[in-house]
Write a structure and sequence with these properties.
By secondary structure, the chain is of the alpha/beta class. It contains ten helices and eight strands. It is globular.
């Protein structure tokens, strides 16, 4: 299978300490590309360094996560902007809103989210969105900030079919991670069935959210194959078909074609 993990945290210590093994297993599983995603200045810088060291295989995504939105200031914005301008950085992210943990004040989250959307627009790059228990406000921000010439990704999607449909109209792709494979995820699986394959992506969000039947273990890019297999089952296709289609979608949104 030709696989593209559109959201991995290779900058996480759990994976970085065995990076040669992680990358070897990824290639053995059929991965042709991995997007490694930052969530603050340090992790974003590490994403760039990894992409520079593994050109064509690892692609960087840089931004400040809503958990760290309280650190967003003029100096941080300038540093992230300069980093995101690098050619190996394919998108700005992960950015968005998280009302589940609420580790930063919600107004600070909204400010950092909107300003990073503007940054991505200025850099002519897509955005990668983190959304947890903030569906209505995410959609409200996106509708206010439109249009999105470069589109983006709703990462580890957990919203409704109606939200997905609205986001696709705005030019976004919908990405599914390990939770799609969980036995109790019937609602998410039904949403996936209804969405068009040409707007779907797959990811691991590793080292978190390992897919079934390896749920609870350390996740890594090689396991995105299990997400591709579940997507194929839901769509009534061969895994090779869903892998190829989602890889093509990934190359499109990241501007790699």
């Amino acid at each position: 299978m030709e696989l593209f993990d559109t959201h991995a945290h290779l900058n996480d210590e759990k994976l970085h300490k065995d990076l040669p093994g992680v990358l070897a297993r990824a290639k053995e599983a059929g991965l042709t590309a991995i997007a490694t995603v930052g969530y603050d200045w340090k992790s974003s810088l590490m994403s760039v360094r990894l992409a520079e060291k593994h050109p064509g295989f690892i692609h960087a995504v840089c931004g400040v996560h809503p958990h760290d939105a309280s650190t967003w200031d003029k100096q941080t914005a300038e540093k992230i902007y300069n980093l995101a301008a690098e050619p190996c950085v394919r998108a700005v992210g992960e950015i968005g809103l998280d009302y589940y943990h609420d580790l930063s004040p919600r107004e600070a989250q909204k400010k950092a989210f909107s300003e990073q959307i503007s940054m991505a627009r200025e850099l002519d790059k897509p955005i990668v969105i983190h959304d947890r228990d903030a569906h209505a406000d995410i959609l409200a921000v996106l509708k206010r900030e439109r249009p999105f010439a470069r589109g983006g990704i709703l990462h580890c999607f957990s919203g409704s079919y109606e939200m997905a449909a609205e986001c696709m109209k705005l030019g976004f792709f919908i990405s599914f991670a390990g939770p799609l494979t969980y036995e109790n995820a019937r609602s998410l699986q039904e949403i996936c069935r209804r969405l068009p394959l040409d707007r779907l992506l797959i990811e691991t969000d590793c080292p978190y959210l390992a897919p079934h039947p390896q749920r609870g273990t350390l996740n890594e890019p090689a396991k995105v194959a299990l997400v591709a297999q579940k997507l194929a089952l839901l769509k009534g296709l061969e895994a090779e078909e869903t892998a190829a289609a989602t890889s093509a979608n990934a190359r499109s949104v990241f501007g790699l074609e």
